[in-house]
Structures are given as structure tokens and as C-alpha cells.
Amino acid sequence: MRFTLGVRRQWRRGQMAATVGALLMGAAVMAAATPAFAKKLNVSPAVLGLGTVPSGTTATFTISATAKLSGTVSAPSGPGAASFTVSPGGSFKLKAGGSVTETVTLIGTASGPTGTATILVNSNKGNSEVTVTATVLVPPTPTPTPTGAAPTPTPSPKPTPPPGSRAKQPGNSIPVL
User: Fold this and answer.
1) 26, 18, 63: which is closest to 42 by C-alpha?
2) CA 173 to centroid of chain Cα atoms
3) Is the pTM of this model over 0.70?
4) Are 60 and 45 in contact (CB under 8 A)?
5) Cβ within 8 Å of residue 126, ≥6 positions away
6) Alpha-carbon gap, residue 169 to 108, rounded angstroms
7) Is the peptide bond before 45 cis (omega within 30 degrees of 0)?
8) Mean pLDDT per 10-residue run, the chain (177 residues)?
């Protein structure tokens, strides 16, 4: 009986070693197929090309999460940064499956291309950026057109003589003696 127990023990050790080896091999295959740092932060779209538009035009991008995360949205930076604002901007917290929408507003006043601005989205689960471009269309200033006839001038009042003077005024007659 001793021999049988020894064989079984040997067989079990071998079986266990093979099982552990298969598990490690499977884990290695899965690790190779799945990135160690799966993307948990998604920003869409990554480029906002507004085109030729008037100042005040808005566009949006969405930040979504596949895991609980928190982060910040920076103010625009780069050569065209002064032409854009982001709201609400600042910090955000998202649950898995949650999202937040950010609005970019064109505030440029000079006609022509604004340059490129970059908005950074930083989180504890990854970083992303949104690139914004636009060309400001300033409408021509309308020329005022006159409406109606010119106003008629108001006649000025006639001067009245100082009290005690006897100057002849219309409607006054001087008695004849």
C-alpha cells in the first residue's frame, strides 16, 4: 500500500504542477490580449473644427468613463487660446458609465483664423486632449439709413421790451393827444 500512496502523491504533484502551469500560461495570454491599463477615460470628439462662424458660436465635447474617475478640464492653451472659453470646466467626478458635456464658446472678435487651442482633460485614469480651431466671421457693420422727413425748426420767441419802455409793439397803439 505504501507504493500506491507514493504513486498517487507523485501523480497529484505532477497534476498540480501542470494545472498551475496552465493557469499561469492562460493568465499570460489574457494579459497579452488585454492592455494592463485599459482606457477608462474617453473624450469625444478629439477635434472641434468650428469652421467660419460668428463670435459666440458654441460646440460641445463629451467626457465619459468606463470606471469611477475624477479629473479636471483645463482652460484652452496655445496660440488661439484667447479666442475660446470652456464651461463648466474645472474639476469633475464620474461614476462608471457616467459622462459630462463641456461647451466651448468662440469669443474672438477679430475677423480671420483664430489659431489652434488645446483643452487638456486630466484624470486619475488617463489623460486626453481636445483641439479647437475656427475662423471668426465678423459681419459688416450696417450703415444707418435716414427714416422720415427732417424735423421742422421751432421758431424762437420774440424778445420782450424791458418794463417801463414805451416802444411800439405790434398790437399796441399809442394814443394821440
Assistant:
1) 63
2) 85
3) no
4) no
5) 37, 39, 40, 41
6) 69
7) yes
8) 51 54 51 55 94 94 94 95 94 94 92 93 93 87 65 70 61 58
